[in-house]
């Protein structure tokens, strides 16, 4: 074993509201991961696995612990242009994957709202896309993986060879072992563009109705919500529907298989570097103009509806948030948290309305709201259910009392959701308490997960701040 160079660094979540100092190693080979596991097993302590650090909260953070940052293990071993199956290292990002696949007429089946996410992080969190209602979660397009257990042994796993490990490792938020290679199925596309509609939704119920009416036909559905609107306008927003194009439908479509035409352009109007936009957004947040910005965006929706449908590249449709680099800096210095409740279909309208009303009542109105339709999936620690999620971004104050008040509000909201049989998603969580863990998943799933943790990781080598907060391992 060669000497491993751990570096003392601040390691934070994407939201910048959580994090701490950790000893970070960036391995480039499977052997180095095994060496790191062996060293920390020998010296005592724990390791947090980390992809590209795009979880909002503390899922890939370990204060005062070791952190294995896998972003440099980013080789695509192979891509089969006949089947669309990619074999990749865990640090390969959604961006790396689509840039490779689109050139052959394939697109990843499930992508997140940013392309910066790694394949290891996507599998560990079992991420979902704007098509979750139709195709399910990321885990459903994983064909197999190599998984290094905390002992250093590597197992090759498929859903047939070891169904229990397959369905627990995916969704297991880095608690059972480390993905060192993944085999991922992408899908055939016949154009580099999608047909997109903007649809104005006058309130929450209208938004939910559109999701129900269209989910049998649409490939993708997602709605932006103006969460500042109240009363009869509460929950109004702009729904986006996107459909794939059939072969020959878009005469210019094959040209957009060129990855450079998918990329998000670096300049606004070809001139203003998008990296300069966040200071303006910072002013909107700190000068309390977010309500106005939301109002303007909602008004602009009518124009988009009139001009629909239109053609948009896959990249532009999926990765809207990547349009503005470092947009999250607008919430500095306190950062942001995202609170994303998953609510069963039958309670959707009532619970989501109550949540937004309580935010107004408490004076903590999210600056961004995103509504999606979901379906259940077969993974053990899943957040998927037959219902809706509403992702709400809150700017966090650097004043302790205001921060505590926001956390108290989120605890109240979490109770509403859990009482209704809802769930949470740890990639987005910053607030859940250990007492909520079994309520999110049910006693049986938690007991199975704990017994797998005991079997594969009896020494609790793999830990994060999230896992300690949830009581998966003792704090
Ligand atoms: C702007 C933005 C938009 C987003 N949009 C969506 C969205 O639309 N849908 C969605 O589902 N999510 C979304 N997310 C969340 C994101 O997809 C998840 O947090 C994802 O897990 C991040 O991947 P990562 O590589 O950054 O992983 P990290 O955040 O670094 O780690 C996530 C988890 O994976 C574990 N892990 C990482 N690598 C490995 C490995 N090799 N083996 C085992 N465990 C590992 C870590 O321990 C941690 O628990 C978004 C995030 C951002 C910032």
Task: Walk me through what this model shows.
There is one protein chain. With 475 residues, the protein is of the alpha+beta class. The protein has 3 domains: 7-70 and 451-469, Uridine Diphospho-n-acetylenolpyruvylglucosamine Reductase, domain 2 (2-Layer Sandwich), CATH 3.30.43; 72-188, 2-Layer Sandwich (Uridine Diphospho-n-acetylenolpyruvylglucosamine Reductase, domain 3); 193-251 and 258-431, Alpha-Beta Plaits (2-Layer Sandwich). The chain has helices spanning 30-43, 94-102, 119-125, 132-135, 163-169, 204-214, 259-262, 277-286, 290-306, 314-318, 348-362, 400-419, 434-441, 443-456, 465-469, and strands at residues 7-12, 19-25, 47-50, 66-69, 76-79, 85-88, 106-108, 142-148, 154-158, 178-188, 193-201, 220-225, 237-244, 267-268, 272-273, 310-313, 336-339, 342-344, 368-374, 387-395. Strands 11, 12, 13, 16, 17, 18, 19 and 20 form an 8-stranded antiparallel sheet that branches. Strands 5, 6, 7, 8, 9 and 10 form a 6-stranded antiparallel sheet that branches. Helix 11 runs antiparallel to helix 12 and helix 13 (434-441) packs across helix 14 (443-456). The longest helix has 20 residues, at 400-419. The radius of gyration is 22 Å and the shape is globular. The site of flavin-adenine dinucleotide (FAD) has 32 residues, from strand 3, helix 3 and strand 10.
How would you describe this structure in keywords?
alpha+beta, Uridine Diphospho-n-acetylenolpyruvylglucosamine Reductase, domain 2, 20 strands, Alpha-Beta Plaits, 6-stranded antiparallel sheet, 475 residues, binds flavin-adenine dinucleotide, Uridine Diphospho-n-acetylenolpyruvylglucosamine Reductase, domain 3
């Amino acid at each position: 074993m060669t000497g491993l160079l751990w570096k003392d660094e601040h390691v934070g979540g994407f939201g910048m509201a959580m994090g701490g100092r950790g000893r970070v190693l960036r391995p480039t080979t499977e052997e180095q991961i095994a060496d790191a596991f062996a060293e920390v097993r020998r010296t005592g302590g724990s390791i947090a696995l980390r992809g590209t650090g795009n979880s909002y909260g503390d899922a890939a953070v370990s204060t005062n612990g070791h952190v294995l940052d896998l972003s440099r293990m980013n080789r695509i071993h192979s891509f089969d242009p006949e089947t669309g199956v990619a074999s990749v290292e865990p640090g390969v990002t959604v961006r790396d994957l689509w840039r490779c696949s689109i050139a052959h007429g394939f697109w990843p089946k499930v992508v997140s709202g940013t392309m910066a996410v790694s394949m290891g992080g996507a599998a560990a969190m079992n991420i979902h896309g704007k098509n979750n209602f139709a195709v399910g979660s990321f885990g459903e397009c994983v064909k197999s993986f190599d998984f290094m257990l905390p002992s250093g042994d590597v197992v090759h796993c498929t859903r047939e060879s070891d169904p229990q490990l397959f369905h627990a490792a995916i969704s297991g938020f880095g608690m059972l072992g480390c993905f060192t290679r993944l085999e991922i199925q992408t899908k055939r596309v016949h154009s580099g563009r999608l047909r997109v509609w903007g649809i104005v939704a006058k309130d929450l119920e209208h938004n939910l109705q559109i999701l129900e009416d269209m989910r049998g036909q649409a490939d993708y559905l997602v709605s932006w919500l103006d969460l500042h609107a109240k009363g009869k306008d509460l929950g109004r927003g702009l729904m986006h529907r996107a459909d794939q194009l059939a072969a020959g439908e878009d005469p210019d479509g094959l040209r957009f298989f060129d990855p450079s035409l998918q990329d998000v352009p670096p300049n606004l109007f070809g001139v203003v570097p998008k990296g300069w936009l966040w200071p303006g957004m910072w002013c909107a947040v700190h000068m309390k103009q977010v309500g106005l910005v939301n109002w303007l965006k909602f008004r602009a929706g009518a124009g988009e509806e009139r001009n629909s449908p239109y053609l948009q590249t896959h990249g532009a449709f999926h990765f809207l948030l990547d349009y503005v680099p470092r947009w999250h800096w607008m919430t500095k210095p306190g950062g942001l948290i995202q609170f994303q409740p998953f609510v069963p279909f039958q309670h959707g309208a009532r619970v989501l309305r109550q949540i937004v009303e309580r935010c107004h009542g408490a004076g903590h109105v999210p600056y961004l709201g995103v509504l999606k339709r979901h379906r259940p999936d077969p993974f053990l620690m899943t957040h998927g259910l037959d219902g809706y999620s509403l992702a709400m971004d809150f700017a966090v104050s650097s004043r302790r009392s205001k921060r505590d008040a926001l956390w108290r509000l989120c605890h109240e909201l979490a109770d509403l959701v859990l009482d209704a049989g809802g769930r949470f998603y740890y990639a987005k969580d910053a607030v859940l308490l250990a007492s909520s863990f079994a309520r999110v998943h049910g006693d049986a799933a938690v007991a199975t997960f704990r017994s797998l943790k005991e079997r594969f990781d009896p020494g609790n080598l793999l830990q994060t701040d999230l896992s300690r907060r949830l009581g998966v391992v003792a704090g």
